Amino acid sequence: MVVCVCNAIREEQVRDAARNGARSACQAYRALGRQAKCGQCTPFAREIIAREHSAA
Question: What pTM does this model have?
């Protein structure tokens, strides 16, 4: 599933960034060499990251 349309970031990429230590949407996007643009995706990215860390 696409998380960020502006940057074409997929859910699995956000999950991988979280597994590699990203604790926020901004950190995950930076790890992917991108940054949030319109910001509509950040709540969804935060949710994915939180779920990934709680499952660890």
Answer: 0.92
